[in-house]
Design goal:
CATH class of the largest domain: Alpha Beta
CATH architecture of the largest domain: 2-Layer Sandwich
Shape: globular
CATH superfamily of the largest domain: ATP-grasp fold, B domain
Structural class: alpha+beta
Helix content: 25-40%
Number of strands: 41
CATH topology of the largest domain: D-amino Acid Aminotransferase, Chain A, domain 1
Strand order of the largest sheet: 26-27-28-29-30-31-32-33
Distance between the termini: 70 Å
Length: about 650
Amino acid sequence: MFKKILIANRGEIACRVMKSAKKMGIKTVAVYSEADKDSMHVLTADEAVCIGPAASKESYLVIDKIIAACKQTGAEAVHPGYGFLSENEEFSRRLEEQGIIFIGPKHYSVAAMGDKIASKKLAMEAKVNTIPGYNAEITDSAQAVDIAKGIGYPVMIKASAGGGGKGLRVAYNDKEAAEGFDACRNEARNSFGDDRVFIEKFVEGPHHIEIQVVADAFGNTVYLLERECSIQRRHQKVLEEAPSPFIDDSIRKAMGEQAVALAKAVKYQSAGTVEFVVGSDKSFYFLEMNTRLQVEHPVTEMITGIDLVETMIRVAAGEKLPFTQDDIKANGWAIECRINAEDPFRGFLPSVGRLVKYRPPETTDGEVRVDTGVFEGGEISMYYDSMIAKLICHGATRDQAVSRMRDALNAFVIRGIDSNIPFQAALMQNERFLSGTFTTAFMAEEYPNGFVAADVAHSDPALLAAVAAFGRRRYIDRAIKVSGQMPGHERKVGSDWVVQFDDEDYPVRLVNIPGGYSATCNGKQYDLVSDWRFGELVFHGTCNGQPLCLQLERIGLLYRVVHFGKQVKATVMTANAARMLALMPKKVPPDLSKFLLSPMPGLLREVSVAEGETVAAGEKLAVIEAMKMENVLKAERDCKVKKVVAKAGESLSVDQVIIEFE
């Protein structure tokens, strides 16, 4: 077994690999960019080597620097994690040439599956179901239209070297086929340096199902069941679960056997994932093979009990798989929510900055797991992807896994930046998700106008009012206890309160009960019992005898309550104070229509207009970049530029003024 391995990655996945390595008694080496010098993966490793500036192309993507770090530290093997160099054939080959073990498949397997056109041909030869399509190189849009008509609309136009949703279009007619071909080829050329494009049948009612495979150097290949990955945004996964609520045992077996056949065809060693699209009629077709560890691998680990990272390390060290296909059984259900630094109410735009508060839910062995690479007080950088953590919950049934996920999301505290927790919490309440009858069109169909505050409307807002009143009363009781009272001058605390949030008033009557308070609001009674104290961000207790977990904190004179994704900042007043407040004049918000504001924190890459210039509606004004994502800001109406306030190259905060109009 290896004595020391290097992890050629950062963040959550680097920490995840280190966890298994340390369990196995293997020392670890981290590599890091200058922007990551204080990151968790650097602090977790036994050794760490700086490999360059923040930009990935100058650090994490430079093969020579990774090899040099291996030689400097004596690392015998390299685990690539996912992303960066994990599916780079040259990286795998160069390591082998240097006598360094690549903890992953051999370079020829990476090459065979890295090209989508070549991989589809190999799949056909291995008798794996493939989608009807045209796999040869296409020269121009006219040929693309002829091919699309021959296959039959709708068709999918896809870059051969694509990924992450780039270089992908769906066409329903000749015009869309021609335009989609040109757009895909341009995106592919710019993003991957490879403008080859192929066309295939677009499957109706599609599910994105992937099969986890593992293989050793002795010809043993096993599939570890499937993962359901159909809930995606911009072709990127948001939530994953295992097993799938859609497929049955016969389909599972057929898909698994075909995945194994493909892995054997390319002489695969290590862990890998074969992705399929499954139609509404349960027909399934090969999409691609990812020759690396997947982001969503924990759900497979949860239901099989197999540590995939440890398995990859042991296979790379020359060991046989310690299990056979007959040993693989599904134990319960697991769901993973990706917790990202993004604002779901602003089109999921990236959010960067300091994690002022970061308190993940308590983990319980086999039930709740958090994989992360951040810590409280750390920075979420604009240079890398937006993932903060992965929250994984397991249950004996899907319903139990969902219930645990709801509670875990309620207890997940993040302050200082925005996160997609409200969106994930809304998913856990969505009837279509709960029924298991969703497809890859889920996001477009459920949130056609984007994700808005109404999508996290609380089913019982009076409960939130009752909890806010609980917080106010506990504050008063503590103040009385701390300050003391003169005999005959005791403070009189009334029972009637008005809680105000979302422009609504909630009258609450609050009385003491053992361990808490009984609140009556809108004709409903809430007996709230908890030992919650100020400074604690998570409220654990009971409501009418049932467990209740939410977030409660005092912010100045307001009380923040967060439950099932819904967040309110409530004012708790006496009835008389509420009457006085109603007489106060309303402050009119400022007119911001004459300003272009930054919708997210990031780097101002480009300002496309100059002072005095007349701009037409739809014309590009500026480009902001953050977390590998470009956001082009366009004029909403005809206007004239009065002043350019921010300059290209400047780091912007949310709502910072970029341009002022006349």
